[in-house]
Amino acid sequence: MELSDRKMKILSEVVNNYIQYAEPISSKMLCSLLNFSVSSATIRNELAELTDLGLLEQPHTSAGRIPSHLGYRLYINKLMGKYYLTKKNKEHINSILNLDEIDPEILLKNATSLLADMTKFAVISTGVCTQEDYVKNIKLVQVGKCTAMIILTTSSGLVKNKLFRCEFLLTDNILDRFNNILVEKFVGLSLKEITQAYIQSTAASLEELAFFMTDVLDALLEISELASRTDLHFDGQINLLSLPEYDQQSAIKLMNLFNYSDDIVDLFLMNDDNKTHVFIGEEMHHEELDQSSIIITRYVVDKANYGIIGVVGPTRMNYTKLIAKLEYIAYLVGNKLNNILEG
User: Which of 125, 123, 121, 124 is nearest to 314 (CA)?
Assistant: First the structure.
């Protein structure tokens, strides 16, 4: 929709004022803030037209206006300014986020926890998402006489392990032989190729060894499936309970959505670019998110692989500052993961 410059300025001021004060704004207050050379009656007419267009809402007949979800969308797409973190802001983030950490999963967990503390909202993240992740290393380690652990490392830096039990005594010679077979058959193989059919085919090729390696191959199939799954992590849930926009029931519904919904991650992975995206309320087609906004950005690893980090909160959030913090932390995480993988 095309709006006049005056309507755009009015809409921008309504959004900015509501983000800051959480109170409807009147035509009289807008006149003083915008210093327009028009009457309060003219501003009232403009507010009425913006309301008819669905960009503003009037909570009560005698109240001022607040932005609607559609108003927030227009504000984010066309009116929102760019906020830049100061050098001091960046140094503060650098000092809190442990950039010496070499475990990718711990690094990402630390980043999401830091963002939740900084924003006082909830934060979501995923591990590295890639269609071409492959087995970089695989190793069996003996834990007991008949117990071993299989450790799988992927090209994206993910490490998965599983304990399993054999029906025979493990020896150094048996472990060496098993490890040689695993390296030969699976290192360099993409995770999506490690299927039940491929495991069965591999077992058949081992002839008399197939019986002894059944437990090993079953454990390998299980952790390969885990490694290829994009898990959604949720942190800072407790922050939702302290926000006035959520009552206890709505906050719990929101928590349950992220903790137990299997398809919610697909919503945030559907964009195939590296831009930051803002999802508002009903756009997400989940009733639990109708009064919420989610800001999502990517951290990029090795130019081809990526994960997401996002902030979850009410629609009344300071989008410009949140985006600046989110993008900077994503930049740090991506750079550090690149260094880890290169090392």
Answer: 121
Question: Are 94 and 156 part of one and the same domain?
Answer: no
Is the predicted pLDDT of residue 327 greater than 80, yes or no? yes
pTM of the model: 0.78
The total of other beta-carbon atoms located within 10 Å of residue 167's CB is 9
To 10 degrees, what angle do helices 104-119 and 87-96 make?
130
Of 53, 79, 105, the position where a domain reaches its end is 79
Whether residue 162 is found in the same domain as residue 184: yes
Write out the two tokens for 133: 């992740």
Range of the domain at 243: 87-129+231-342
Query: Which percentage of the chain shows pLDDT scores above 70?
Result: 97
Contact 94, 335 (CB under 8 A): no
Pull the structure tokens for residue 227: 């490694």
Task: Give the count of beta carbons closer than 10 Å to the beta carbon of residue 197.
Answer: 9
**244 and 115 part of one domain:** yes
- Grouping H, G, I as helix, E, B as strand and the rest as coil, residue 201 is helix
